[in-house]
């Protein structure tokens, strides 16, 4: 079973790129972030025509998350992260697909830091950590994937010394990610490539992609039940070089059958 995550940076504007990637790689489950489309403007028919069922939580102008499944039913569990009834950002959606609980997330950026946006990021991280603990306790096979907006270590960022004050790399952010992982989750990319430089995001400026000056901010966290089924993981880096593409690369894992 192949599960992918992809911050599309505008699902309608990048639809040709998304459809081409789906056709070329055929993942079984896809988590999308940054739809930047209200609920009624999600391109459901185009996704269906590509062979995928979909659930989504849209939002006008920014945010937005979706889960797609090929040849599988999607049973939606929730479309908001618990813990703050006043939070109106569409940043989390969760479903059951083929016996696996899939949490698709788009964690807040948090810049400028310090400040209100950074405080919101850390509060959101706390809510995610609390919910993640409940998911682990359920004993279900769970994957939490998406754009976490955090570089966990210096290996995950080009020229880390330039990022020390950024919300994605501040000590508080990295500690929050570490605390989450240490509940018992496996960082799938780092399990397969423990010491390799791997990036999932390249800025549009200063030829970042051409210079391989990137960040690893799109992650897969696996529960113990899925950790033992992990057989492969990779980044589709070439997609970042396509015309009118997102600034993120698709990332995927492959799980063995039970």
TrEMBL record:
Q: Where is this site: Transition state stabilizer?
A: 149
Q: Which InterPro entries match?
A: AP_endonuc_1 (IPR004808), AP_endonuclease_F1_BS (IPR020847), Endo/exonu/phosph_ase_sf (IPR036691), Endo/exonuclease/phosphatase (IPR005135), ExoIII-like (IPR037493)
UniProt keywords (A-Z) are:
Hydrolase, Magnesium, Manganese, Metal-binding
Sites marked Important for catalytic activity: 218
Q: Which cofactor does it need?
A: Mg(2+); Mn(2+)
Q: In its UniProt record, which GO terms are filed under biological process?
A: DNA repair
**Stretches assigned to the Endonuclease/exonuclease/phosphatase domain:** 4-248
Site feature (Interaction with DNA substrate) residues? 248
Q: Where is the active site?
A: 106, 147, 248
Where, in this chain's numbering, is Mg(2+) bound? 7, 34, 147, 149, 247-248
The molecular function GO annotations come to: DNA binding; double-stranded DNA 3'-5' DNA exonuclease activity; endonuclease activity; metal ion binding
A Pfam family the protein falls into: Exo_endo_phos
Q: How the cofactor binds, per note? A: Probably binds two magnesium or manganese ions per subunit.
Q: Superkingdom, according to UniProt?
A: Bacteria
Q: Which family does it belong to?
A: Belongs to the DNA repair enzymes AP/ExoA family.
- Return the protein name: Exodeoxyribonuclease III
The organism's taxonomy opens as: Bacteria, Pseudomonadati, Bacteroidota, Sphingobacteriia, Sphingobacteriales
């Amino acid at each position: 079973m192949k599960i992918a995550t992809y911050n599309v940076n505008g699902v309608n504007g990048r639809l040709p790129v998304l459809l081409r990637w789906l056709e070329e790689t055929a993942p079984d489950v896809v988590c999308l972030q940054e739809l930047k489309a209200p609920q009624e403007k999600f391109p459901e028919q185009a996704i269906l025509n590509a062979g995928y069922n979909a659930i989504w939580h849209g939002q006008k102008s920014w945010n937005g998350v979706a889960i797609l499944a090929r040849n599988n039913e999607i049973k939606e569990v929730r479309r908001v992260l618990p813990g703050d009834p006043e939070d109106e950002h569409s940043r989390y959606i969760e479903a059951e697909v083929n016996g696996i609980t899939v949490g698709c997330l788009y964690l807040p950026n948090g810049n400028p830091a310090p400040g209100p946006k950074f405080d919101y990021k850390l509060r959101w991280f706390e809510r995610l950590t609390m919910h993640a603990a409940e998911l682990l306790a359920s004993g279900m096979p769970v994957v939490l994937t998406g754009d976490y907006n955090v570089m966990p270590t210096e290996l995950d960022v080009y020229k880390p010394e330039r990022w020390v004050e950024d919300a994605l790399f501040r000590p508080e952010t990295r500690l929050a990610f570490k605390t989450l992982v240490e509940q018992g989750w496996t960082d799938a990319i780092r399990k397969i490539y423990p010491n390799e430089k791997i990036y999932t995001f390249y800025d549009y400026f200063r030829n970042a992609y051409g210079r391989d000056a990137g960040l690893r901010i799109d992650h897969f966290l696996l529960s113990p039940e899925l950790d033992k089924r992990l057989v492969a993981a990779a980044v589709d880096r070439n997609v970042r070089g396509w015309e009118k593409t997102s600034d993120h690369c698709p990332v995927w894992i492959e799980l063995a059958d039970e």
